[in-house]
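User: structure tokens for this one?
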Amino acid sequence: MADSEMPKFRNLSLDRHGNIFVITMQKPPENRLNSWYCQEIIRAMNTVQRILGPDSEGAVITRGNDAKFWCTGLELEESDSNPFANTDGFYPMLHTILDFPFPTIALLTGHTFGGACPFALSHDYRVMNSSRGYISMPPVDLGLHFHGIGALPRLKLAPRVARKMLLEAHRWTGPEALADGVVDAVARPEEMFGVAMEMAREWAPKARMGVYGVLRAELWGEAGGMFQSISYVHSRLTSRPARVKL
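Assistant:
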């Protein structure tokens, strides 16, 4: 597929840099996630997979469109009118990223809040703004729960750090998140993209043997299976709605 034939997306762009693809979220306000937007991100990921093809080198970077926000979580109000919003959007998106056959990098350009934490943790690597923005996951303060909400913190972070994230709603700055292993690198705003691109180029070749995704599943497959099990489920509710909406 030629660059001129790249599909158009609603409130996000997909750009190609050789075998590195960059998804830039551009949805006001603050790149908050709802069912249709999660499906757009899924469509962008599927487009990359289709372009690269099997047994190829490649990687994907997901970034915000400014240095203030990466993503501030879910549009919690959507569940008032659509109780299946997350099962049709958020959970399938997390599973898609965890099942993706190429390395993925979340470039946390700014604030990363709420549901954006599992969104970020579903990526293989995280690069965070060193001078602006917090990362925080506050379901304990909102009264919110869904099956598997703690899987990625438990599987990817040290136990005390997972506790800080899920049970204490801790807010990390970039340097603090790096020290606790929540992110893999921090960089100044003007250098973030370059750091993410360098990381993508380093790890893109690891996809060429066709086993990157299945090996990832050996590490984090439990989380992927949980999200898959609550995706596209309409016979029952799959979450406890937030009591407090921010």
